[in-house]
Amino acid sequence: MLTVLNRVFVSAFYARNAGTFLVILLVAFGFLSAVEHKALITAALGSPLLLALVFGLWGLYLLKTVSFVRQELGAPEHLFLQTFWLIPTPARLTMWFGVQLALLFPIITYGGWMVQIATVYRRWDSLTAIVLVLVGLTITGVALADYRLRHPNPGSLQLPYVSIPLRYELFFPTYWLRHEPLSLVLTKAFSCLLLVGVCRLYPTDDYDQRLLLIGLLLAVLGHTQVGGQVSAFEHKYLLLLQNLPFTQLQRFGRYTLMYGLIWLPELLVLLRNCPTDIRLDYILWLWLAGWGWILLLHALAYPQTIDPERWLSGILAGFIGGLLLIMFGLPVYIWLIVGWLGALGYSYRLAKGLSF
């Protein structure tokens, strides 16, 4: 029976939220080293406020697991689990503990790391609090899951539900994260790791700013498929978007904000790994230029009638041409101006032809 429960709840939970976990790992361990994580944990162990913040995040994660268990128990294909309550209570609760421990494995692992550090620094008060919170979260999850099993009526227990309206700029990023997580992770991992490598390569030899521009070019080209994904998303789920009474400038502004959010991790990477010989304003100009060029790529890729082979040929030609221009010393502000003007101009043309 435990094998069935693990397949229904544990495997399905991690498979459905794989993108979220990968993004969290990329953000957490992409920007913070193990030493920095240890310093952060040490600070939390000595600060009740930071420790309470960590516990609050763990509580939110528990609510997510409880909500998932409730949803799966109510799914038509899992109604056979209603007979699970006929199993004797001690055995049933033991199985629920196994399921809940597996669901809480990420925070239990992180909590174990915190306990190990607390032991080294002899922070027995913090250690006790961490252990009690982890035990409390596990017991709470087991109790809520078993209660839902014994009371299948959805109205018998209502978990807190928060409805947060999303702005249009968040529609596609949310969809991308939830439904195409692998594409999101691969795109951002390629772009961010590439920029990290270029920034760390810069001080090792007699390079100039053209190396950073080449890295930017490759990072932008790593987003070539995003425009097509946005187009497919809007033509499938937002059929009325083209007929809404928005001006062309308003539409362009919404796409600008959406791609600014998508392009934001690259700014954090550049700021975090900025070579000492490069001024901060150049990094900002570099990032702004990339923002304009992914907007231009969006405008170019948005029409669904585009030929994939022609698109790939154009991308390859653009890479070769861009590389030559960088080698000849075309400055970053020219790239910035051309990217933004091209994005604005082509978007305006597209709006005229497609009610964009």
Helix content: over 70%
Structural class per helix/strand content?
mainly alpha
Compute the number of helices.
15
Please give the alpha-carbon distance between the first and last residues.
Answer: 54 Å
How many domains in all? Answer: 2
How confident overall, as mean pLDDT?
Answer: 82
User: What is the number of E strands?
Assistant: 0
How would you sum up this structure, described in words?
Keywords: Membrane, Transmembrane, Transmembrane helix. The chain crosses the membrane at residues 12-32, 39-63, 93-115, 127-145, 181-199, 211-232, 252-271, 283-303, 315-346. This protein has 356 residues and is an all-alpha fold. The protein has 2 domains: 2-156; 168-354, no CATH class. Helices cover 76% and strands 0% of the residues. The protein contains 15 helices and no strands. It has helices at residues 2-16, 18-31, 34-45, 48-74, 89-103, 105-120, 124-150, 171-179, 181-201, 210-221, 226-237, 248-272, 280-301, 308-327, 332-354. Helix 6 packs antiparallel against helix 7 (124-150). The longest helix has 27 residues, at 48-74. The protein is globular. The N and C termini lie far apart (54 Å). The model has no long low-confidence stretch (mean pLDDT 82).
